[in-house]
Amino acid sequence: GAQTDAIRRGVRNRRNRLIVDPNPRAGMMRDRDAFRVNFLDIAATSALVKVSDEDALLLGFEDLGELVTELLARGARAVLATEGAAGATVRTRGGSVSVPIAQGETPVIDTMGAGDATLATVVSGLLRGSPAGPDDWRPLLERAMRVAAATVRSYGAELQFAN
Fold first, then answer.
1. Which of 13, 14, 53, 144 could make an SS bond with 45 (beta carbons 3.0 to 4.6 A apart)?
2. What strands, in cross-sheet order, belong to the sheet with 48-52?
3. How confident is the model over 69-88, as a mean pLDDT?
C-alpha cells in the first residue's frame, strides 16, 4: 500500500509516463490479494503495462488473456504481454499485434531476463515516439524479440544488444 501511494504521489501524468511491470514473486508477496488490488489500480492509469503468462497465474487470473483484457478495461493505454516461447503481443483498445520469438543460431541457455529485455527494448523505442496504431508497434516488438533472443543465449540476465 505504501509503495502504491508513493507511485501516485511521485509520478505526475501517469497516463503518458508510467510504465509498470508488476513482476510478482510468490515468495516475496505477503498479501497476494492486496498486491493484485494495488497493481490493478496503478496499472489503470499507466501508459504501458508489461505482464507475462506467469504473472497472470500468480495474480489469480485464469490466463494471460484474461489479465490483459482486465487491464485494458480498467484504463491502461497499452499492454505488453510476454508468453515465453510463444513470443509477445502488444494490445491497445485499437487492436493488437503479436510477434513470435526470434530464432537464433546458438542454443537458449538461460531464459532469465528475457521479459526484462523485451520491456527495456520497448521502452527505448517509446522514448523515440509513441506508436499511433497497432501496426506501428510491430517493428518495435520485432526488435524486442531479437534483443530477448540474444539475451537468452548468454548466461545470466544481462541485457544483450541486437539489431
1. 14
2. 19-20, 48-52, 78-82, 88-92, 95-99
3. 93
